[in-house]
Each structure stands twice: as C-alpha cells, then as structure tokens.
Amino acid sequence: MEKEEKVMEASKEEIAELTGNNPDANNYGAKNIRILKGLEPVRERPGMYIGSTGKTGLHHLVWEITDNSVDEALAGYASHIKVEILPDDNTNPDHPASIIRVTDDGRGMPIDLHPETKRPALEAIFSVLHAGGKFDDGAYKVSGGLHGVGASVVNALSEWLEVTVMRNGKLYTERFERGAVVSDLYEHGTSDHTGTIVTFKPDYEMFHETLIFDYETIRERMQKTAYLNSVLTITVEDLRDPENIISNTYHYEGGIKEYVQFLGTGKTLLHNDIIYTNSIGSYKELNSNGVEVKRDVIIEVAMQYNTSYNSTIYSFVNNVTTNEGGHHEEGFKLALSRELKKYAENNKLFKKDEDITREDTLEGLVAIISIKHPNPEFEGQTKSKLGNPEVRGLVNKAFGEALERYLGEHPADAKTIIDKILAASRARKAAQAARDATRRKSPLDNLMLSSKLADCRCKDPSKSEIYLVEGDSAGGSAKSGRNSNYQAILPLRGKVLNVQKVQLARALENQEIQTMIRAIGTGIGEEFDITKARYHKIVIMTDADVDGEHICILLLTFFYRFMRGLIEAGYIYVAKPPLYRIQFGKQMDYVYSDEDLERLKKEKYSGKKYDVQRYKGLGEMDAIQLWDTTMDPRYRTLTRVHLEDAQVADMTFEMLMGEEVEPRKVFIQENAHFADNIDV
Ligand code: 0R9
Hints:
By secondary structure, the protein is an alpha+beta fold. The protein has 3 domains: about 40-250, Heat Shock Protein 90; about 255-435, Ribosomal Protein S5, domain 2 (2-Layer Sandwich); about 440-575 and about 640-675, Rossmann fold (3-Layer(aba) Sandwich), CATH 3.40.50. Helices cover about 35% and strands about 20% of the residues. The protein is built from 22 helices and 24 strands. α14 (about 470-480) crosses α20 (about 625-630) and α17 packs across α21.
C-alpha cells in the first residue's frame, strides 16, 4: 500500500488558515498542527489505514497510541507507560469487546486553544487525519507504527474514545464517538503530576472479526519496545477477569544488549561479552526550505555468537521492526564480514584454500540493529525495508569500528569466532555439493517424484494447489477424493526432519524434503526463486492431533528456514480437518471444535439419539469425506500462514525445535500463533 494513497493533503491555503501559518516546526502546540482532512475516509476504507480490519488491524490501534507515548519518552519527558486491557462496558451485548487504556507520565498533550479555530490542540490530533508533529519537517519524532497514521485513525475507528490530560495541576477530559467530539474538553479536578491517558473501545461497525484484544500480543510488543528503549518502564495489565488479573512490567537497563542476551537463552554461547556499539552518525539533506541541514542518526548494534547453525538478526528503525531488512542491515553485514575476514587474514587464521563468505559469518549469530532516524523511508512488499541509502555507510562505519576494536582487545574470543565461521564455510561447501546432487535430475529421481506426487493437470501455478498430506493412507484418500484438474497430492511419510537442529546439508539428505523441494519448484536458500513456484497454494494437511500438529510445525520450520519467500508471498496454508462427525439418521454435521460439538448437541441434536464419531486421523475418512470436509474450496477452512512478525515466528520455531523440551510440549497442544485464520 503506497503511503501517498492514504495521505489526502489539504491545500496550502487550508493549512495556513487552520494553523495560523506558523512554521516554527520544533515547537508543537496549537499553532503548527497540520490539519489535513476529516475522518470519513478512514471509516470508509479502514483497511487502507491500519492494514486490515482483522485481529492485526485491531491491535494496530494500540500501537498507534503507545507510539505517541514512546515519542514523548524519547523526547525525554516520559519514563512510564501503562497499557491496560479493561473489561467490556457491555453496551452492545451482541458485540463483545475489550477496552484499551494507555497512560503515560509525559508533559500531557497540549490543551491550549488554536488561535484561529479556538479548539484545543489535542482535539486536532484526534479528529483531523494526519494532524500532529510526526509530519513536521525537522521534528525528531522517532517512534511510529507500521502505517504511522496516528491517533485520529484510532479515534475514527473507535465506538468511543476519551483523552484525559494531567497538566498545569489540573485534569482535563474530552470525549469522542466514532471520531466526532461529543463532549468538549472540560476541566474536572486537580492533579499533582502530568501525563496523558487515552481510553478507547474499538467500533463493532468497523471490526467484524473480533473486538477482543489479545494480552499476549500486546505484552510481547511492549516487552520489545522496552528492550529497544532502555529509558522506558512499561506495564501491561489484563484487568478483564477480576479473579485473574495479569500484569507484567518491563524495564531493561541494558537495552538491546539485554535483548541479545534474552535471545541467546538456552544456547551455548561462543563468547561471554556482547559486542555492542551506540553512536551517532550524521548526514546532510535539504530541508523544506531548500537549505542544507545536518541530520543525526542514532545507531545501536548488539551481537553475540552461539554454537547453533541459525542466525537471528532483528533490525528496527524508530522502534518499528524492519522484517525485510534494508540499508541498516546491509551496513551491518558488510562490516561484519569485512572485519572478521580482515582479522583472520592479519592474524593468519586461514589455512590454505580457506575462505569465508558473508553467509558464513551469519551462522550462529544473534544480533539486534536498532537505529533512530529523523526521516525514514520504508519500502518493500510489506513496507518493512529501510530505503535510506545514507544509513548503509553510517552503520557500516560505526559497527565496523566497534567490531575491529572488540576483536583486537579479545584475541581468544576472536579466534573462537573465526573457527566457528570456518566450520560454517566447510559446511556450506558440503551443502553446495548436496544441493547440486538434488538439482541433478536423473531418470531415477523423476521416477521417484512421479511415484509419490500425484500432480494436477493445470499448469498455471496461480490456479494450482498442492496438498502435503500426513501419511500414505490419508494420501491415498486425498488422491482419490481430489479435483485432479488443479489439486496435486504429495503424501509425506513419517516425521519430517527437524530442520532447526541440523545444517542445510543434512536436511537436504532427507528423502521427503528432497521430493517436496522438487515438487514445489522454487529451489531453496540463496537459489530460491518465487517465480518458479509450481503452486500458489501449498496446503499442509495433517491429523488433528499432537503428532499432526508437530509435523505441521516441522514443515513450517522448513519453509521458514529455507523457503521463507513462500510464506512471505502468502502461499503456505494449513488445512483444518474436522474433529468429529455427529449424526442422527440422515442429518449429519462435521464438527471442527469441541465448543461447536457441545453447541450442536444442545441446539440441533437435543433430545435425539445421535451418534458422534471422533476422527483420530485423516486416514479414518474416506475419499469423499476428505473432499467434503477439508479439500472442497466451497466448504474447507484453510489458515494462511504469514510472517506478520518474523521475530515472533522465529522465536516460536526456536522454542519448539530447540534444545528445551518442556515449552515445546506445552506449545504443541495449543495453536501455532504465527498463523492467522482466514477462510478461503
Ligand atoms: C496515552 C497516549 N499518549 C499520547 O497519545 C500522548 C501524546 C502526547 C503529546 C505530548 C506529550 N505527551 C503525549 N502523550 C506533547 C506535549 C507537548 C509537545 N509535544 C508533545 C507540549 O507540551 O508542548 N503530543 C503528541 C502530539 C502532540 N502532543 C501535539 F501535537 F498536540 F502537540
């Protein structure tokens, strides 16, 4: 979605009229708030402003508000943020909802009246699209949600929203409903401290999927925000059940160093110290008046190696995750490989014919790159790639110097790291040989593929699907039940390799994985090419039990590690087979959850002598049943797997597949929370 599509700028005259035309951009207040347009467009096309009107979009409302508090903290005026999930006010029993309250201890939003409009400054922030300091040239507002559209969008999409400001020793409140002022800002008491409280209830007219906030999603995001901003203390509370109040408070004095430490938990570390830099780089640009000005970029990097084979690199710009990387990540990787290579060469650590690539230096690495930029440009498919080219050189220089210093001062650590990278280099060469073997198509390989894969007749990938089916027996039923025009079936026997624990070379030796790669057609790793995908729907179909769940997660791990582009393109799905069949005479229903079974027993089958069959596996269904319940596009439920937050997904995989057994067991019995439900 292009930013330009969303911004509907008012004319210069309108801005001048409404703002009093005061260009003093660094002094926020009523005068220089840019008023751009009414809120109707937001209610007309909410997805344009918050990405979606599903669960993800709903939670964006929270981020938009907390981001403003984070800005206030980064400006040096606030240190505490509290996010509370409150119980429903029960005004619409048909639409159960939760309410969010965000509190900060900053200066309090300005309440002074605009000289022309005679309305309070905060009112413009909440009732005019794109009002606020974020868009003022020169204003160093660093925080920002995915779409950065602010408080007015939250207000537009809330059934009601209240802002309370503690300022000048007094308390003020203004209330809005669906974006419109319903009670003007009024003074109603005194306060011995300053701050802002925003409380809102999402509007059921706007969010049809759910109005219930997820504590875990908010907790996780706030924890990350606390790691990235060591000045902050953030409390998250779930007050919905008075019997079970949940509360977490986060404050990380060590900031991203503690983050790296946390991500390395449970891993064997190669060195004790975390390599760290915190510096300011600057570049020149022209401001809105065409005058060249110097801009500062804060650069923070922390990293540490462990003995694993995976790399965990998370990058952020102004506290926003940049899943697709960009120039800050590039600068980091460039400096990393250059400095390590230079050190190894200078200290004669390479034997004859040995060399290392950039990819080798990433193995077993945990790194956080966090920059604060006054004017970030986001690009890429999901607008999560940093596009400012000047950042590459700044990070390269800042981190390169820090790493060079560290290696020079810690020769024992340096040697351990270089040894690890050389091992990675040897494994890479072995993997290349294995990959070449996978690619080499002998007539025997083709025979093996065709004996397992029941391909579809359609050759148009956008219309073709492949079902990866657990077990030969279910695979057989799926082959008989499918629509062979566009549905291909690949049965997978046994547990697919646990790819987290092994290196690429070993994973590729696995027969099931080789067949799957050949069938999908994109290649893997660096050679991955999404345009070669033979199917645009890759559906994992496993039993609705713990083993099935496990196989599903193993497959997702594989895709995440080696064919991530398939997830990013939205090609990976999980099928949902029924758990039960309930029957009375000719009346029959397939049931997909325990709750639905109980409901049907009470409502549709009450008083009847019904029969309930529990499906322990897909293999218990015949071809027709499998088609009806899990493969027929008219009735099936597919869940699209997406990397809404690569970090969460990666940590989940790590937890599931890593060395710690217990959390994995617990998790497998619950649902994978990197998947978002959609009906297809
Ligand atoms: C609970 C959520 N908090 C906020 O939304 C929040 C916004 C905000 C803020 C300022 C201080 N605290 C805040 N909390 C602020 C005050 C002043 C100047 N800049 C920022 C000041 O006192 O001069 N504001 C964010 C935007 C604006 N205020 C403004 F545009 F209205 F100025």
